[in-house]
From TrEMBL:
<comment type="similarity">
    <text>Belongs to the UPF0102 family.</text>
</comment>
<protein>
    <recommendedName>
        <fullName>UPF0102 protein SAMN05444411_10736</fullName>
    </recommendedName>
</protein>
<dbReference type="InterPro" id="IPR011335">
    <property type="entry name" value="Restrct_endonuc-II-like"/>
</dbReference>
<keyword id="KW-0540">Nuclease</keyword>
<keyword id="KW-0255">Endonuclease</keyword>
<dbReference type="Pfam" id="PF02021">
    <property type="entry name" value="UPF0102"/>
</dbReference>
<dbReference type="GO" id="GO:0004519">
    <property type="term" value="F:endonuclease activity"/>
</dbReference>
<dbReference type="InterPro" id="IPR011856">
    <property type="entry name" value="tRNA_endonuc-like_dom_sf"/>
</dbReference>
<dbReference type="InterPro" id="IPR003509">
    <property type="entry name" value="UPF0102_YraN-like"/>
</dbReference>
<dbReference type="GO" id="GO:0003676">
    <property type="term" value="F:nucleic acid binding"/>
</dbReference>
<keyword id="KW-0378">Hydrolase</keyword>
Amino acid sequence: MATHNELGEKGEQLAVEFLQKKGYKILERNWRFKKAEVDIIALKDDILIPVEVKTRTSNYFGNPQDFVNQKKIQLLVEAINEYIISKDLDVEVRFDIVAIIQNKNITKIEHLEDAFLHF
């Protein structure tokens, strides 16, 4: 497996553990629809929360969350619409990003709630 894939999987596992400690119930991991993949779908306080996880080894080229672009957002919104329809859910939705910097010396996790409002 490529190193960046291993880093991504490790980051997703860190994000799951982080969210569970904050009381989130993890419903799905790596849920796919067409070209979109939702890293984590969680539920907390009756709010459905799709979570995009971005993991980097440094912020040299920018913060991890800076790599979520408009096309990615559009794909995630489309995927979550399908998820809600396919599961026949009646829920409020909030999109979050968990940004992780992970290297030998540090692990920094930043949770951005309602992240897509800032784009």
